[in-house]
Amino acid sequence: MDGTEGNAGQPGPAERSHRSSVSSVGARAADVLVYLADDSVVPLAVENLASLSAHELHRAVREVLQLPDIALDVFALWLVSPLLEVQLKPKHQPYKLGRQWPELLLRFTDAPDDDVAMDEPSLQFRRNVFFPKRRELQIHDEEVLRLLYEEAKGNVLAARYPCDVEDCEALGALVCRVQLGPYQPGQPVAHTLREKLDSFLPAHLCKRGHGFFAALRGRGAKAGMGEQGLLDAYRQVKEAVSSAIGQEATLGTHYRAYLLKCHELPFYGCAFFHGEVDKPAQGFLHRGGRKPVVVAISLEGVHVIDSREKHVLLGLRFQELSWDHTSPEEEEPVLWLEFDGDSEGTPVNRLLKIYSKQAELMSSLIEYCIELSQAAEPAAPQESGLGHPAAPGSLPPPTQRPELRRQGSVVCSRIQHLCTIDYVEDGKGIKRVKPKRTTSFFSRQLSMGQGTYTAVQPTDSLEQG
Questions:
Q1: Where are the beta strands (DSSP E) in 83-152?
Q2: E strand or H helix at 33, and its extent?
Q3: pLDDT digits (tens, 9 = 90+) for 67-100
Q4: Which of 408, 413, 405 minimizes the C-alpha distance to 315?
Q5: Peptide bond between residue 280 and the one before it cis (omega within 30 degrees of 0)
Q6: What are phi and psi of 12, to 5 degrees?
Q7: What is the radius of gyration, based on Cα positions, of the chain?
Q8: Which H helix or E strand runs over 315?
Q9: Is-contact 103 64, C-beta < 8 A?
Q10: Average pLDDT, the chain
Q11: Alpha-carbon span 21 to 3, nearest angstrom
């Protein structure tokens, strides 16, 4: 499998435990278990499993779940373990890839040999990375919406989708509505929320060792938020939805509302990869070191997320970057991201090195996402979240993402937390730039006049560091 064969990433700590999808294998028949986002299982009795394609298994799952035709585009089959996750192409043969799993782990992860020997993937039915967000607005089937909702909820609760506290409360309130029903004044809801807090909010906001409020304040939250904020948001769910349609909302309406809220997050629907970046030098000895990151790649761009702090370090649309990857035999594979920046008022070009054995996969996925974006047809007239044509100003165009302007939002870039290589036109501040440049380091960038990225031109007098 080369870098174009699928999308691989490393699951977060809250991912499902180790399990197998093939429970028994005979000469002709096998029982295959396909896991859904809500942790339920679809058992399939199939013949000739070794030669069965992902497309054929996908069709079998759709038939069992009685999903509409749109599910063929919405979902894909994935091989997932605690060490690696890979989205399968329709032509892939899951059983054969499962047999090759140790080789894939050795190629695309740094897992110890003992972990590689014990690891076994499960087959999962999950959202297709290449399904555009705008098309989700056209889905009306409640079961498809439920599966998308369950997957998005799992990513929010596992902090794979970093969210501000305000957004966590709004999303958690919708989960309350789905799980607990409409808010009823006078009922002792607060106790229920307190006991099941980790069902509504990400784990790092539910630390109980020093109190819930202390955990929130440690993340920059305002005092007074927490259970009360979640309860206030829960109170508003029924009123907001009911006033829009004049009657009590269906679960499908709440699933859709949850997904629309997730659409505001720039990394919704991404494939996730594991890597490391250099820390800025600190202290008297200028020690830096590295920090673990998650690289989230979607049809819209690339986001580098701090694995520990649960916030974005860098977010770039494809129009704003150039990229490449290197895999020298004696050095670590690197994904290079190049983008515009500013240093004390001077325009600079910046290079970010992401160390990862999945650099080749990330580079191939970026290239394919750009190809899809350039080939995409103009979007159809957008519909509102309630299934009706959107009124002027009711929702932003599909190509635009609502900007979260909160000060210190977790989705805002934190360039100051990254160690980049900067270079400028007049030679000031050049660091480790070889050889002399007349254009961007990388020719791989969004073309066709759509990009806003501009390489800073050097002069003959530039010195190399």
A1: 85-87, 122-127
A2: strand 29-35
A3: 999 999 999 999 999 999 999 999 999 999 999 9
A4: 413
A5: no
A6: -75, 175
A7: 23
A8: strand 311-317
A9: no
A10: 76
A11: 24
Select from 324, 318, 307 the least CA-distant residue to 370. Answer: 318
How confident is residue 184, by pLDDT bands cut at 50, 70 and 90?
confident
Residue 33, strand partner residues = 43
Distance, CA of 152 to CA of 257 (rounded, Å): 12
- Whose structure tokens read 């998005």? 152
HSE-CB for 18 with a 13 A CA cutoff: 7
Hey, what amino acid is at 164?
Answer: D
> What's the rounded Cα separation, in Å, for the pair 191 and 415?
41
| Nearest CA among 259, 234, 162, 263 for reference residue 203 | 162
Residues 319-334: tens digit of each pLDDT: 888 999 998 777 889 9
Complete DSSP assignment for 224-270:
T-SHHHHHHHHHHHHHHHHHHHSSPPPHHHHHHHHHHHHHTSTTTT-
Residue tagged 């054969």 (tokens): 96
CA 423 to chain centre: 31
φ, ψ of residue 197 in degrees (nearest 5): -60, -40
- In this structure, of 144-158, 190-204, 267-281, 378-392, the range with the lowest mean pLDDT score is 378-392
CA–CA distance, 101 with 120 (Å, rounded to integer): 7
Report the C-alpha dihedral over residues 339, 343, 348, 349, rounded to 10 degrees. -30
Q: Under DSSP, is residue 215 helix (H, G, I), strand (E, B) or coil?
A: helix
Q: Which amino acid is at 303?
A: H
Instruction: Judge contact between 91 and 53, C-beta under 8 A.
Output: yes
Tokens encoding 280: 């800025």
Stated as kind and residue range, the H or E segment containing 150 is: helix 142-157
Q: Write the CB contacts of 69 (distance below 8 Å, at least 6 apart in sequence).
A: none
3-state helix, strand and coil shares in percent for the chain, rounded to the nearest 5: 30, 20, 45
Phi, psi of 368 (to 5 degrees): -70, -40
Q: How far apart are CA 249 and CA 97, in angstroms?
A: 43
Query: pTM for this structure?
Result: 0.77
- Side chain identity at 460, as an amino acid letter? D
Full DSSP string of 123-140: EEEEE-TTS-HHHHTT--
How far, in Å, CA of 265 to CA of 191, rounded?
30
384 torsion bin: left (phi>0), alpha (psi -120 to 50), beta (else): beta
Contact 102, 146 (CB under 8 A): no
